[in-house]
Structure to design on (556 residues):
């Protein structure tokens, strides 16, 4: 039923990302695709996390400034980019923070930048895409109580022991 | 642990698991177990957790570490220059830690104990070591140009002995001047090294170097790519320099003589690159040169060859410990199926370990009569 109701939007490509511009497409089709691994090695430490906020396009300048301010405040290195969604009704706008997994201070710095970025996205009316566990908690904290109750009922019915993907979207 | 300071840099992008055409997984242990922890990246993360005290030593952890076939696919395909050179070094250092703790899998313990007590993993007396060459009329080494080193598998394993006899006979027929050590030969120690037993490896190095020095050996031909690798890269050349050749390199130099042999009607052959000859030492051409010199032979390459070849699963001591050995998803069985897809009726090998692994796999796959595993000189030998 859901699929059928969305079929028109899907086939018109209204719901997905707009086609990549040629330079990005070239990068994404590179094999091996080294960009992400190289970015993760900026701090010589094998790690990065990102916040990809789904939000209206007109928030771009504000979101850009906010991301830069957060990175400066937390002392993190960053990478940023955007993908336009559908017919231009919104965008996925990301800030990514690399960190050195062997340096706890560096890991904490990136963690704080992530927390703050997630908070900022939600404040602006956006929603973090593919949210990691701490971002999920922030989303759950702002979720409509009826939606929360519905997710809870579905989870209780399908996964009463909480064994499916534990740690993720734990609304109870 | 040595190389502990590089482990955190692995991002687990996953390219270490693949060949460059991405046709299938190319890490033998990941291909077999299909758990991230059995891939190079996962292994690095688990290893780091172990060193940080977040993970206790367990039989499962030992299996994860010792199931690596040290094939070098990860080193070939990791996207980080320099870092990638130490991936296998880190795994061997971790094995060394486990050896020192005495927490290795039972099969590894038994292998190392047999090597220490008997000088070979088969628990056979030294007097058995020379029997592989009975009736061939080979000369003991006494200053000939080359020393032919048969190794433990070539000297004591039934399949390995067949291969050693075939190679030595062909070298003799071609007039290559060589001698053998027979019962005086020692293990090259490559598997002890790759299983993390540095002490045993060191003592075998000294034993071999002393023998070579005493006899004045200047050039060694090895049957096994594993011995070739150890002699070439891990023996200290500053104490006693000697040249090392894999037998296919010596046969390659005789390609004209081989080409003059009577032509076969039609031989469809595919070739399996041994990791310790290919990826570890970049020798892809010599075996192919020998094969291509055989009149009537058509070489049909598999999808994964040369630097992308899929290991038979017998490297890193696994030939003896068999941590990757059984079941349809074992690397050797997957490789034999891949060989079948080429339409070849002969799967050519240049390593005694590969010969046995793949021959057993062909039997398990019920492919006997459809594809035959033959070592390169065995293909030539029928005509020579």
């Amino acid at each position: 039923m859901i699929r059928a109701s969305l079929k028109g939007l899907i086939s018109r490509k209204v719901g997905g990302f707009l086609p990549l511009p040629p330079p990005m497409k070239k990068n994404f089709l590179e094999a091996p695709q080294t960009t992400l691994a190289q970015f993760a090695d900026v701090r010589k430490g094998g790690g990065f996390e990102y916040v990809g906020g789904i939000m209206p396009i007109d928030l771009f300048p504000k979101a850009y400034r906010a991301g830069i301010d957060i990175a400066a405040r937390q002392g993190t290195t960053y990478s940023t980019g955007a993908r336009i969604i559908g017919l231009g009704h919104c965008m996925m706008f990301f800030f990514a923070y690399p960190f050195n997994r062997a340096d706890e201070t560096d890991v904490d710095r990136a963690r704080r930048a992530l927390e703050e970025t997630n908070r900022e996205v939600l404040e602006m009316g956006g929603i973090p895409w593919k949210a990691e566990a701490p971002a999920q908690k922030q989303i759950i904290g702002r979720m409509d109580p009826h939606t929360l109750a519905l997710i809870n009922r579905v989870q209780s019915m399908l996964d009463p022991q909480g064994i499916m993907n534990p740690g993720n979207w734990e609304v109870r | 642990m040595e190389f502990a300071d590089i482990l955190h840099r692995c991002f687990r992008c996953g390219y270490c698991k693949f060949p460059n055409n991405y046709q299938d997984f190319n890490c033998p242990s990941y291909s077999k177990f299909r758990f991230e922890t059995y891939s190079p990246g996962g292994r690095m993360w688990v290893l780091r957790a172990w060193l940080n005290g977040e993970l206790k030593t367990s039989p499962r952890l030992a299996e994860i570490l010792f199931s690596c076939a040290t094939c070098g696919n990860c080193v070939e395909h990791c996207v980080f220059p320099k870092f990638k050179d130490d991936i296998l070094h880190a795994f061997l250092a971790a094995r060394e830690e486990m050896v020192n703790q005495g927490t290795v899998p039972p099969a590894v313990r038994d292998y190392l104990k047999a090597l220490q007590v008997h000088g070979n993993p088969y628990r056979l007396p030294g007097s058995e070591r020379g029997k592989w060459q009975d009736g061939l009329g080979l000369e003991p080494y006494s200053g000939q140009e080359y020393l032919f080193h048969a190794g433990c598998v070539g000297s004591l394993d039934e399949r390995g002995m067949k291969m050693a006899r075939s190679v030595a006979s062909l070298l003799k027929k071609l007039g290559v001047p060589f001698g053998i050590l027979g019962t005086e030969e020692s293990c090259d120690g490559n598997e002890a090294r790759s299983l993390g037993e540095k002490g045993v490896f060191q003592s075998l190095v000294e034993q071999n170097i002393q023998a070579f020095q005493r006899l004045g050996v200047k050039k060694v031909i090895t049957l096994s790519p594993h011995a070739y690798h150890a002699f070439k890269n891990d023996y200290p050349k500053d104490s006693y320099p000697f040249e090392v050749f894999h037998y296919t390199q010596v046969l390659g130099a005789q390609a004209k003589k081989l080409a003059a042999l009577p032509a076969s009607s039609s031989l469809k052959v595919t070739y399996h690159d041994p990791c310790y000859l290919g990826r570890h030492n970049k020798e892809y051409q010599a075996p192919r040169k020998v094969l291509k010199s055989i009149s009537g032979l058509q070489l049909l390459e598999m999808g994964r060859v040369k630097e992308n070849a899929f290991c038979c699963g017998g490297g890193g001591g696994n030939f003896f410990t068999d941590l990757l050995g059984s079941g349809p998803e074992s690397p050797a069985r997957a490789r034999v199926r891949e060989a079948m897809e080429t339409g070849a009726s002969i799967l050519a090998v240049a390593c005694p370990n590969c010969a046995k692994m793949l021959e057993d796999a062909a039997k398990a796959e019920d492919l006997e009569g459809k594809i035959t595993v033959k070592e390169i000189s065995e293909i030539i030998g029928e005509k020579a």
Strands of chain A lie at 46-55, 79-85, 90-100, 127-129. Residues 16 and 86 of chain A are 5 Å apart (CA to CA). The two ends of chain A are 28 Å apart (CA to CA).
